[in-house]
Write a structure and sequence with these properties.
Layout: H1 3-35, H2 40-44, H3 51-73, H4 79-101, H5 115-129
Helix pairs in contact: 1-3, 1-5, 3-4, 4-5
Length: 143
């Protein structure tokens, strides 16, 4: 095995670990929003003004977690899904950052602390998805 293949395998392993973490986060938030929206504020420091709205958002997080699970199976084949994962992580960075910029400081570190990690995940997924060497004429599911 040459050095390039080894580096690529390590990079794929890092992406898969990141996808697993993204899956767990979105699945947890989705289940919490769907079945116990009243616990989102004490557990995640996410203000919930309307529990019904949080319950509507819960399935969206579950679907996002399924995208992570599919991309986890074969990141090289499902690179198009990595763009969605990068977008999901970018939203998780931008939305709290905008709130902070407008002076809405959360009561705890639960909102602020994950921002650098989520930014790293967004960059990691985008770089892996944009890697050269894939067949651009194939459909996304055949790459």
């Amino acid at each position: 095995m040459n050095a390039t293949a080894t580096k690529r395998d390590v990079f794929t392993l890092i992406v898969r670990i990141s996808l697993a973490i993204g899956f767990l986060i979105d699945f947890y938030v989705g289940l919490l929003a769907l079945f116990a929206p009243q616990l989102m504020t004490p557990l995640l420091d996410i203000p919930v003004r309307d529990p019904l709205l949080a319950q509507f958002a819960g399935p969206e997080f579950i679907v996002a977690s399924l995208i992570y699970a599919i991309a986890f199976r074969d990141p090289a084949r499902f690179r198009i899904l990595l763009w969605l994962c990068a977008l999901d992580q970018a939203f998780a960075v931008v939305m709290p950052s905008l709130a902070l910029a407008h002076g809405a400081v959360p009561a705890s570190w639960k909102i602020i602390a994950p921002i650098p990690v989520q930014a790293l995940f967004a960059i990691l997924f985008a770089v892996y998805a944009a890697r050269p060497g894939r067949n651009r004429s194939a459909t996304p599911f055949m790459q």
